[in-house]
Amino acid sequence: MTKTVLITGANRGIGLELVKRYLQEDEWHVIGTCRHPENAVELKQLVDSSSNRLTILPLEVTDSASVLQLKNSLSDKMIDVLINNAGIFNDRGSSIGSFEFDKWAESFDVNVLGPMRVTEALRDNLDHANTAKIVTISSQLGALSRRAVSNYAYCSSKAALNKAMSTLANELEDTNMIVAMFHPGWVQTDMGGSDAEITPAQSADGIFSTTEKLTKADSGKFLKWNGEIHPW
């Protein structure tokens, strides 16, 4: 039986690796979204080798009209797994005295409101699945238990994202939907840097495997890429 996963921010980094990982499994159809599909060279290269199991759609998660366009293009298509991966880290090294509040607002718009916009818009599509999974890529920097001294916008946006998604898990407690947040690891991407601990492929493989094992008892949990519980 064919299953469908929709991955936002699928043109690079962890998102692109998640597309590759799901395409390794014949039963999965992948919908990869990004802001500018025409420029997503690596993502487009996967189409020819995917046996028509990869669809690329435009999506700007901060634009309600773009999210509505995505919803309309999917119509009543069932989505088994939604992976909210699109995100930004735009205030690296920020500290008091040098706050750029426009960047702070942008960070919240992309990292918090974006996943919530997409999830709300695709609620009916997810509801068609027997057990739908809403997976959101967060960060250990959003954990209140972790000491932070900088990166205010990014850290606080990921903390807000975790709270929003855990609240959603509570609201959907009596439904067929599972909501989980992931720290993807310190990953060798544009965001994580070349000195990071794991490769995008390792992170994606762990997220894929852990997502496959999620049960309703996991809804609302903050997990590491390898399936371990991450302290809040």
TrEMBL record:
- Identification of the protein by name: Protochlorophyllide reductase
Sorted UniProt keywords: NADP, Oxidoreductase
| Keyword Nucleus belongs to the record | no
Q: Which GO terms describe its molecular function?
A: oxidoreductase activity
Entry superkingdom: Bacteria
Q: Which Gene3D superfamilies match?
A: NAD(P)-binding Rossmann-like Domain
For this protein, the record's InterPro entries field holds: Fungal_SecMetab_SDRs, NAD(P)-bd_dom_sf, SDR_fam
Q: Which family does it belong to?
A: Belongs to the short-chain dehydrogenases/reductases (SDR) family.
Would the keyword NADP be found if you checked this record's keyword annotation?
Answer: yes
What are its GO cellular component terms?
Answer: cytoplasm
